[in-house]
Amino acid sequence: MFSPLNRVLLLLLCLLALPGRAAQLSLTLDAIRHEAFEADRVQITFDADRRGEADIRLGRLRVAGVEYKELRLHCSGFHFDGRRLDCPTGTLRRDDERGRDRPPLPFSLAYRSADKYFEFALRDAEVVDLSPLVKRLRGWKPEGRVDFRIVAQGGKANLHLGLRGIAFASKDGAMAGRDIALTLDAEARKTREGWDWQASVDWPQGELTRKPWQRAAGMRMSAQGALSEDWLDVRQLRVEEAGVGAVTVSLRWDRQRDEAAAGGLVTEQLDLATAMRNWVQPWLAELGFPAWRTSGKARFAAEWGDGRLRRFHAGLEDATLADATGYIELRGMHADIPWQDGVPGTAEFGIAAGRFGELPLGAFTFPMHIDDRAATIRGLTAPLLDGSVVIEELALIRAASGWQAEFSGGIDGVSMPRLSRTLGLPLMAGSLTARIPRIAFADGNLSLDGALAIQVFDGGITVHRLRVIDALSAQRRLLVDVTARNLDLGMLTQTFSFGSIAGRFDADLNELEMTGWQPRRFAARIASSPGDYPRYVSVGALRDIVALGENKPGGALDKVPERGFGGFGYARIAIGATLQNGVCLLDGVSREGEGVVLMEGSGLPAVRIIGYNPRIDWEALVARIREVRAGKPGVVIE
């Protein structure tokens, strides 16, 4: 018995066998159904004069849930006998205006009806030539070449994809690739809902950007999941990168909305430096956090859905964390940081050592309380030299404008001699205690609410209106007012290599502005405090004060011996300086003609110090101060 299709084929073969010139013959099939594909409105055309040549038109072809329309294939070496269709050498194009503008794609095709064997391959095709067939390529400006082969039989399919020299970019620039070489091998099995699949990818060359991430080649991936009309499910995607570690990702992609509906990741032990730089830091930057340098080992896990992060967990082992400027550094860190949307929790931290600038910190541990909008540390005392840093409250807060921070606490009982040695400063006497009511960090700027009170040099220093603009950049800008009252001049002059001065002093530093820790402007004044206390100044101190105000060698003070002379009494000492545009304007107790009185003497002999150069280049004044601190002033006056 012959089937209707075989009867048609038998008729066609008889016609082809007739002598003479045969007319062009055409065979039309309404549909071909296979587990791997569906084809509708299939038309095969050939004639007797061109044996082995045929044209095939497909009104619709559907493969793996993707639909292609109006395809035209030309075959050389064509064979079709009802049971087998072979097209070993062919070209493929879309049969519309858009498709006719592109070169045809080279392909081969084989089909057997008995065992439903199907094979289709593209060889060394230009990726851009696929754009008439693959709608998603349009607008991506693709470059490079591709090999593609799919084999399907009995509800199973195998796919191979090879890419070479691939480059592309989305219209908004959020996703792009450059010089990519990649191979993909996949297997799939037909199910009631669609396809179950597994795949492996080798990516040895090129660079891929998916903002905020940018990844270089040198990765291997393996995955398994399912594909249906509505969903692409990646149940397990394992990504391995040499020298870093491995991460396993799951993803549910909504094909109708073309967006991720849910997903998650969990890592094995990772090299923290590379993982932070490649994976975490770009995400933190999107949230408004500054850059950080890291080392050590880490583990991460996360889960997201409905467009937001649902759960997150991080673990650190023997880690180092430092800001990009190197000002803050924490070493020997361990951490266990869980977070769940809508559920308050507690993270545990431990630090073996650290520093802020040149200030070292000792070991300490602390809990951090975490909820949806804030992470908070309360009641922490950390060792600082022979005293401590006290954190009454430190909070990271998620606001509408980004992440913000608040701090209140202070420094308690730090020895000034030990602190000054640590910071490489002249030796200071006394101890340091500071109270910080509240410091806030927002939009990259640091600001002090209220006043910072410091007890040092047996007196008090108060910091007002403190602001640091771009606080975590190398070009940070500091603005502040400082007031000092009743400080011990003996302690101060001993510290900074002045000759000896007995007494008390007040100081005001207003509108100080520094960029990159270099002063740009200020209005400063140091003056003896009111009150009844011993007031005298040694010959060495006189020389130092004179050196700040003048720039000419020699003078009567050179004839006065330092040893064996008790010094001079004074009624008032005052030195003022206003910095603007690189020039420092000096002021003092009062003005006398063209000069500025820096010290009014008392008793016998009474000594007055007058400076006759009230305009001094700032760099020159800094050089004089350095000489004074070194104990070798180069200038005096009478």
Question: What is the approximate shape?
Answer: elongated
Strand content: over 45%
User: In total, how many beta strands?
Assistant: 43
* Mean pLDDT level: 79
Count of spatially separate domains: 5
Report the helical percentage. 10-25%
What Rg do the Cα atoms give? 41 Å
Runs in which pLDDT lies below 50 for 5 or more consecutive residues are 1-22, 551-564, 632-638
Helix count, per DSSP? 7
Largest sheet: 43 strands, antiparallel
Distance between the termini: 133 Å
Structural class: mainly beta
Overview in brief:
By secondary structure, this protein is mainly beta. Helix content is 11%, strand content 61%. The protein contains seven helices and 43 strands.
Give a written overview of the molecule:
The protein has 638 residues and is mostly beta strands. It folds into 5 domains: 1-154; 158-265, no CATH class; 269-372, no CATH class; 373-442, no CATH class; 457-629, no CATH class. The protein has 7 helices and 43 strands. The chain has a 43-stranded antiparallel β-sheet that branches. Residues 1-22, 551-564 and 632-638 have low confidence and may be disordered.
Search tags:
5 domains, elongated, disordered C terminus, 43-stranded antiparallel sheet, mainly beta, disordered N terminus, single chain
Show the helix and strand layout.
Elements: H1 4-17, E1 25-33, E2 37-46, E3 53-63, E4 66-76, E5 79-80, E6 84-94, H2 97-100, E7 105-112, E8 117-126, E9 143-153, E10 156-169, E11 175-190, E12 194-210, E13 213-216, E14 219-228, E15 231-241, E16 245-254, E17 259-267, E18 270-271, H3 272-286, E19 292-305, E20 308-323, E21 328-340, E22 345-351, E23 353-356, E24 359-361, E25 364-370, E26 374-384, E27 387-399, E28 402-415, H4 416-422, E29 431-442, E30 445-449, E31 451-456, E32 459-469, E33 477-488, H5 489-495, E34 501-502, E35 504-515, E36 518-528, E37 536-537, H6 539-549, E38 568-580, E39 583-588, E40 590-592, E41 595-602, E42 609-611, E43 615-617, H7 618-629
Antiparallel strand pairs: 1-2, 2-3, 3-4, 4-6, 5-6, 6-7, 7-8, 8-9, 9-10, 10-11, 11-12, 12-13, 12-14, 14-15, 15-16, 16-17, 17-19, 18-19, 19-20, 20-21, 21-22, 21-23, 22-25, 23-24, 25-26, 26-27, 27-28, 28-29, 29-30, 29-31, 30-32, 31-32, 32-33, 33-35, 34-37, 35-36, 36-38, 37-38, 38-39, 38-41, ...
